[in-house]
Amino acid sequence: MKIVGPSLGGILVASFNSDIVLIVEAFCFIFTTIILSFVHLPNIRNTSIEKVQEKKKYKDELQEGIKHIYNNTILSTAIVLSALSLFIIFLCDGLLVILSKQIGFNEAAFGIFVSLIGFGSLISSFVIG
């Protein structure tokens, strides 16, 4: 969504008032809510005893998973580095707005700019494998 969404949003903001774009987004959320209301979820009934056993089982599995991550240095290092890199990426995404204003981008150019970042990420993931 980081390819089509930002460029479409930039074009809409450049073509129309930003208030209209927010109204369109609100209608999209309402439409999505209506569609999701038709999704059938199976009815799951748990007695209180089953709920207590399920909570204990969940806690045991969670503790086991945390111990496994803690004891596996490769896995714990990968998780920490992934968390740090995602933190930096999202921090830079927020700063791109300030940078684009300093450069003089309008809304459409900023949308295309963010779309190109998403497209580059997609291409690099295919190249890297």
From TrEMBL:
<keyword id="KW-1003">Cell membrane</keyword>
<protein>
    <submittedName>
        <fullName>MFS transporter</fullName>
    </submittedName>
</protein>
<feature type="transmembrane region" description="Helical">
    <location>
        <begin position="108"/>
        <end position="128"/>
    </location>
</feature>
<keyword id="KW-0812">Transmembrane</keyword>
<keyword id="KW-1133">Transmembrane helix</keyword>
<keyword id="KW-0472">Membrane</keyword>
<dbReference type="InterPro" id="IPR036259">
    <property type="entry name" value="MFS_trans_sf"/>
</dbReference>
<feature type="transmembrane region" description="Helical">
    <location>
        <begin position="74"/>
        <end position="96"/>
    </location>
</feature>
<feature type="transmembrane region" description="Helical">
    <location>
        <begin position="20"/>
        <end position="41"/>
    </location>
</feature>
<dbReference type="GO" id="GO:0005886">
    <property type="term" value="C:plasma membrane"/>
</dbReference>
